[in-house]
Amino acid sequence: MEEKGRLPDEGLKKSVTVIQALSLVVGMIIGSGIFLKPGVVLQSAGSPLMAIAAWVAGGIITLASALSVAEIASVIPKTGGLYIYLEELYGDIWGFLLGWVQTVISYPASIAAQAIAFATYAAVFVPMGSWQQKGLAIAIMAFVLVMNIISTRYGGIIQTVATVGKLIPVAAIIGFGIMAGSPDFSAGVSTGMTGFGAAILGTLWAYDGWIGVTNMAGELKNPGKDLPRVISGGVIFVVIVYALFNIAVFGVLPYDQVMGSATPGSQAAVALFGEKGAVFITAGIMVSVFGAMNGYTMTAARVPLAMAERKRLPMSGVIGTLHPRFSTPANALILQCALACVYILTGSFETLTNILVFVLWIFFTMGVLGVFILRKKYPRREGGYRVPFYPLVPIVGALGAAYIIISTILSSPVQSMIGIGITLLGLPVYALIKKENS
User: Where are the strands (E) in 92-170, listed by range?
Assistant: First the structure.
């Protein structure tokens, strides 16, 4: 008779090292945005000096959010991350609604987007049609899926190698770019606080992704201690990398060229290394999106796993069990990649991710503010990590998140409302599951 799978609390291996967790933070933040965003941010900021200031300001807001969520992660170090935090701090329904949109749409659509991006850049080297690119996207996603089913350690190794790989072209541009010349900080014009605010908003998208590591808490050897370290350390590292990268780009390219460029990272590479620089950067972006796809695949599966463990999903008995041999969340991984495959074939991933941005940031803001509820719930807690400069730091993080929410409503009101509608579709599912469980 075939051995049955094991429940997460019976066999989920604590195989994720601190280095691998740090690679998840850095690898999920740094995608293709670092190569593409400098021109967009400069256009809003108006000058190289204000653009770099916007990158730093966006990093400070992100760090404030990260430090706040890290305290929650240290007290509730469970597999599932933000889904678990909302459920335990705000109530079951809030956690379920986040888990619903993450499991069914957000995470698999993000995996699909990264897979398609990889195939799109691969077409630079090997010309491919639309369906050939979709086939390659599914194939590379299947490879990542199999590696993560066989061993979470393999997924962690892939993540570490991909993160190091993506940092090589970034480090080359930073090193040679800074030596090549210094930015002309007198260039440009002032766009005022409105333009600077828009520039910060542009950087905040590029800092997204770090919270995914909290989904893996149950697989860290000492999550209460390690999560705050890898979250804060990873975000600080990325802030420094982003600032130095922009200084290098502005030192290599004139102001007007960066302003009008959709691919300033590639142009900086060409200026530094010749025409081969574009190939070098394209390969770097492929490694970057491959690492992000692996990171999303690893972390995404832990949400339906945690939901199924609490019997919050249909077929929880199947989704919430581990592979009998490998002790990995194989069924949850297959579920996420199967949905991602549907989104790749239909081409709907970009629309879906755009629609749900507004909703996800509402839940994210609740997560940052959750540290206030946490301290009321555990008022006499001693020892362990506590967010510095409380309550200023979580307030800064929450204000930054609220700024994204308000900006999204103003710029895309229809999409925002559709996102709310999709989220609320989870309510009858929640009611049905709760009735079945009772």
Answer: none
Residues present in the chain in total:
438
Which residues are within 8 A (CB) of 276 and not within 5 positions of it... i.e. 6 or more apart? none
Per-residue model confidence (pLDDT) at position 56 = 93
DSSP class of 213: G
**What are the phi and psi torsion angles at 322 (to 5°)?**
-95, 160
This prediction's pTM = 0.86
Provide long-range contacts, Cβ within 8 A and 24+ apart, for 370-379.
Answer: 370/69, 370/72, 370/85, 370/86, 370/89, 370/90, 371/68, 371/69, 371/71, 371/72, 373/89, 373/90, 374/71, 374/72, 374/75, 374/89, 377/89, 378/75
Output the six-digit token pair for 11: 């066999």
Q: Which regions in the chain score pLDDT beneath 70?
A: 1-12, 32, 380-383
Q: In this predicted model, what pLDDT tens digit does every residue of 27-39 receive, in sequence order? A: 888 876 777 778 8
- Shortest CA distance to 85 belongs to which of 435, 431, 372? 372
Token duo for residue 300: 């995404």
Signed CA dihedral, 169, 208, 398, 53: sign only: positive
How many distinct helices (H) and strands (E) make up the chain?
21, 0
Contact criterion met (CB below 8 Å) for 291 and 282: no
